[in-house]
């Protein structure tokens, strides 16, 4: 699970990052608000820990802008101010949780774990044998049955198909696809992802030009729909 940590105090940032990594989270950290917006737009995260007082762009503005594009990611806000007004403002901008500095590190880790667990529960569990319409996919052997009969998926095709199935009826962003299927060591082009979806349509759609299962969401990603 990936976490974006946005905190301008270097000591706090280093300590929190280290402890999150000890809990086996992958952490990307920055102390600059403008950089945080750029990173959040380019990569997928399961949780964001966001300080309010930041250089260039404050945490409230970052939270609001992230929420315009992503309603799913958990956001915990950190602030040195303990007034009800600040807490309410953070929650109104879309934060899920709020901690006041100085905070107890163990409490922060517990809140992180709780939000991550909530995120995991939203992901549907998919059986080894998966069927939709007249199509079948085995996520263990990669064997499949589509419109032209039996064939075998590649490993990455099976990984992408499983991701879409787990998130059926939801929009899956390109960033989520990149992380889940390719990781961040290898960055394929947007066209590569599009080609995988085109292949799925040829495999599984009765009419690939009028897809029923694999729907595009312009500027965001794809939605897998089972009517």
Task: Give an account of the 3D structure.
The protein has 227 residues and is α/β, with parallel strands linked by helices. It folds into two domains: 2-121, Response regulator (Rossmann fold), CATH 3.40.50; 129-224, Arc Repressor Mutant, subunit A (Orthogonal Bundle). It contains eight helices and twelve strands. It has helices at residues 10-22, 33-42, 59-69, 84-92, 105-121, 155-166, 174-182, 190-204, and strands at 2-6, 26-30, 47-51, 74-79, 97-100, 129-132, 135-138, 143-146, 149-152, 171-173, 214-217, 221-224. The strands form three sheets. The chain has a five-stranded parallel β-sheet with strand order 2-1-3-4-5, with helices on both faces. A four-stranded antiparallel β-sheet has the order 6-7-8-9, with no helix packed on it. Helix 2 runs parallel beside helix 3 (59-69) and helix 6 packs across helix 7 (174-182). The radius of gyration is 20 Å and the shape is elongated. The model has no long low-confidence stretch (mean pLDDT 87).
């Amino acid at each position: 699970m990936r976490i974006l940590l946005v905190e301008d105090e270097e000591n706090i940032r280093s300590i929190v990052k280290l402890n999150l990594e000890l809990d086996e989270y992958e952490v990307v950290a920055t102390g600059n608000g403008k950089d945080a917006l750029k990173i959040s737009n380019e990569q997928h995260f399961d949780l964001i820990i966001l300080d309010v007082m930041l250089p260039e762009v404050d945490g409230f503005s970052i939270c609001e802008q992230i929420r315009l594009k992503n309603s799913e990611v958990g956001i915990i806000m950190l602030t040195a101010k303990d007034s009800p007004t600040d807490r309410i403002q953070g929650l109104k901008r879309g934060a899920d949780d709020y901690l006041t500095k100085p905070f107890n590190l163990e409490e922060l880790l517990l809140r992180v774990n709780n939000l991550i667990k909530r995120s995991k529960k939203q992901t549907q569990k998919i059986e080894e044998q998966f069927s939709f319409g007249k199509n079948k996919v085995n996520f263990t052997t990669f064997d499949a049955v589509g419109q032209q009969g039996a064939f075998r998926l590649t490993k990455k095709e099976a990984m992408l198909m499983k991701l879409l199935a787990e998130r059926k009826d939801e929009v899956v962003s390109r960033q989520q696809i990149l992380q889940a299927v390719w990781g961040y060591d290898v960055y394929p082009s947007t066209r590569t992802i599009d080609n995988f979806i085109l292949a799925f349509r040829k495999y599984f759609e009765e009419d690939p030009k009028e897809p029923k299962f694999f729907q595009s969401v312009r500027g965001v990603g794809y939605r897998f729909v089972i009517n």
